[in-house]
Design goal:
9 helices; globular; hpI Integrase, Chain A; 198 residues; mainly alpha; three-stranded antiparallel sheet
Length: 198
């Protein structure tokens, strides 16, 4: 992914490692930008491959399992962080000064990376960090549709994972992507045809 490559080239190198890890985490989990920058060391359990997301947008907390490939990236980042900044902050992700990243700084850096990676048109505003959350949800839905899973019954689980209060907030991600609309139509057609043949 061009964006991750660009992030890895940021300087100083520790900043690049942190931003690369935060982008990868957003892409692979759908966490909100505020949830990523607010992670403390005690929230990240890499042995159990789970994150504790505390006091989110709606005042709720949740546990978010992470993939082994994400664990590996976070372990590598944490090792480099601890070598560069021996315990200076409770924050899991540190900026170049060894302090917690701000949401605003991560968003600005993300926007700069999007532009340098050529992922936005010159006359248009490029995607923001929140697009990683949208991308995560759409990919999950596409995988379920391709597997023939009843997506409507799975939406509450996805809503819980993403920290939505109600699954109708998650159903927003069902809209507007040609792949999802195409697969949903095919699945509906297959269901209709199989019921007619009974």
């Amino acid at each position: 992914m061009r964006l991750l490559d660009k992030a890895g080239c940021l300087s100083p190198p520790m900043r690049g490692k942190a931003v690369r890890a935060m982008i990868g985490l957003g892409e692979s989990t759908g966490l909100r930008i505020s949830e990523v920058v607010r992670l403390d060391r005690s929230d990240v359990n890499l042995e159990e491959a789970v994150l504790q997301i505390r006091n989110t947008k709606f005042g709720k907390s949740r546990m978010v399992p992470i993939h082994p490939s994400v664990v590996k990236v976070l372990l590598n980042y944490a090792k480099a962080r601890d070598e560069t900044f021996p315990f200076t902050s409770d924050s899991f992700f540190l900026n170049a000064e060894g302090r917690r990243f701000s949401r605003n700084r991560l968003q600005i850096t993300f926007s700069e990376l999007v532009a340098s990676a050529g992922l936005k048109r010159p006359t248009r505003r490029g995607p923001g960090y929140h697009c990683l959350r949208h991308s995560f949800a759409v990919k999950r839905l596409l995988e379920w549709y391709r597997a023939g899973v009843d997506v409507q019954t799975m939406l509450p689980a996805l809503a819980t994972y993403m920290g939505h209060v109600h699954y109708t907030e998650t159903s927003y991600y069902l809209q507007g992507t040609p792949e999802i609309l195409d697969l949903a139509t095919k699945n509906f057609h297959n269901l209709f045809v199989s019921k007619e043949s009974l």
